[in-house]
């Protein structure tokens, strides 16, 4: 079995800071990250999606965390095809013309290359200190399956190398019954880690939580099951508390997934108040993951073979109704719980 690391999708979200999860005396960015790292061995950097951090900022993250701590870094949104405010770009790289939002193709080749160079420079301190887990390429919900989409994914992934790359696909066309094996094969053949997402089902934007590893690193992100997923603001969209039985069932499935890979990253993204770290701590306890950046290897034999196509079929979209994928057997999500972090 592989190493399991558990954490949340942010440590500096303002709702979390205001929630009281951090003691009042822990009131600096470095102090909060250090406090967080005493409790979890993994965190997802979400701010890098909105703007490329400075190398000095990343060096500060290294200084605030112990050896063995891991950062998964979300790629800058421009790189994955999202509309991006011009103000999110360094002033000297902003295109002329007065547009307020742009796509990557609106930049000159030189400016686009420079943005990637700066992104790599931000990752360098993490990689040098062995703190970098993977770069997350989170593609937009409108990226439907097709040859052009695959080329776009591979182009972005090549830009991320030599770092490990994980891919989150958010259009249901990738997971239709007749193509889901092709999707997994595509990721596996190109060394791209599949990101499984637990989220509300039954919406246009829904994708099924298929538990499969396509590389030595598997990732599962938990969004919760708020009924306001498509209608609420950010706080209401992620307002969900995982129940005790729900987490217990997930712990069984996550142990099974850890059999497929060398490393499993589990991230709570029900970011409303302090619910994410509370649920992450409960799940870490069920998985027997040590809290202070020292994940417990449960089997030193390493990685077991990645699941075959027949194993994948047991976790295909058709398995949702049988409860083999969603541990609580729910469809579009249960009642939202108390505010989360």
UniProtKB/TrEMBL annotation:
Sequence segments annotated as region (Disordered): 292-341
Biased composition (Gly residues): 330-341
InterPro entries xref list: DUF72, UPF0759_sf
Biased composition (Low complexity): 307-322
Protein name: DUF72 domain-containing protein
Lineage: Bacteria, Bacillati, Actinomycetota, Actinomycetes, Micromonosporales
């Amino acid at each position: 079995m592989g190493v399991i690391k558990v954490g949340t999708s942010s440590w500096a979200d303002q709702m979390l800071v205001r929630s009281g999860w951090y003691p009042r005396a822990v009131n600096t960015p470095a102090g909060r990250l250090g406090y967080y790292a005493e409790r979890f061995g993994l965190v997802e950097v979400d701010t890098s999606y909105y703007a490329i951090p400075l190398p000095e900022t990343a060096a500060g993250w290294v200084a605030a965390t112990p050896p063995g701590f891991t950062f998964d870094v979300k790629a800058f949104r421009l790189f994955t095809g999202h509309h991006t405010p011009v103000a999110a770009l360094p002033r000297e790289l902003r295109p002329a013309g007065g547009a307020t939002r742009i796509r990557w193709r609106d930049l000159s080749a030189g400016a686009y290359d420079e943005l990637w160079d700066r992104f790599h420079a931000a990752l360098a301190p993490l990689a040098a200190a062995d703190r970098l887990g993977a770069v997350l390429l989170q593609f937009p919900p409108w990226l439907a399956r097709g040859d052009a989409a695959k080329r776009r994914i591979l182009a972005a992934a090549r830009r991320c190398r030599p770092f490990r790359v994980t891919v989150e696909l958010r259009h249901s066309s990738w997971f239709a019954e007749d193509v889901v094996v092709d999707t997994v094969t595509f990721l596996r053949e190109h060394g791209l880690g599949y990101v499984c997402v637990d989220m509300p089902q039954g919406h246009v934007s829904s994708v099924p939580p298929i538990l499969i590893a396509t590389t030595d690193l598997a990732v599962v992100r938990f969004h919760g099951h708020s009924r306001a997923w498509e209608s609420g603001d950010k706080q209401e969209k992620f307002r969900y508390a995982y129940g005790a039985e729900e987490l217990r069932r997930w712990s069984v499935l996550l142990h099974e997934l850890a059999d497929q890979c060398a490393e499993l990253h589990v991230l709570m993204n029900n970011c409303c108040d302090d619910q994410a770290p509370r649920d992450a701590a409960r799940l870490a306890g069920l998985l027997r993951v040590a809290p202070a950046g020292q994940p417990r290897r449960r089997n030193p034999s390493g990685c077991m073979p990645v699941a075959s196509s027949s194993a994948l079929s047991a976790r295909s979209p058709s398995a949702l109704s049988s409860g083999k994928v969603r541990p609580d057997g729910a469809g579009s999500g249960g009642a939202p719980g108390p505010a989360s972090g």
